[in-house]
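ok so i was messing around last nite and threw this chain in just to see what happens. nothing serious, just curious
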Amino acid sequence: MALNENNPAVLGYFQQQQTPAGWFDMLTIMVDGMVRNVGEKDSHPFLTQMGISFGQAFPLPEAETVGELEAHINNRLAQFNWGIVDIDVEDNAMVIHHQALPVARNNREQNRWCNAFCAMMEGVYASWMRQQGGKDSVALWRDQSWSLTDVQFRYQGRF
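result:
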């Protein structure tokens, strides 16, 4: 079930829980400044690299099953109030459905923040997959967005 970020009560709840005043405001200013200076496309690799570093700083325990991996990711995300994931396995891919992504405190910044946070999460998830034995040649990217708070990532070799 997708969350409706158009519902002011839902949006307000997530803004209050996930974006503490001060720290989040500073982070938003930094991301906005970077995007204004180099553009969204050119900021993507930097944000992804920051996500990789974050994933290394906050590693996951080793998982024996996809269910354990999902639980480990959800436990780590819960530490930061960053939402929840469901993981599905396809023939040649792993699909990470991330709901309740943190949302910007200012509605004008929602799209930019979602793009920046997703770029960072691409790096976080890639780092965590490599820690679980994944190969560098397997890519991870944002595959689909249903809303600003409901995004799907795909971990799959590119053909």
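not much to say yet. The beta strands are 84-89, 93-99, 138-147, 150-157.
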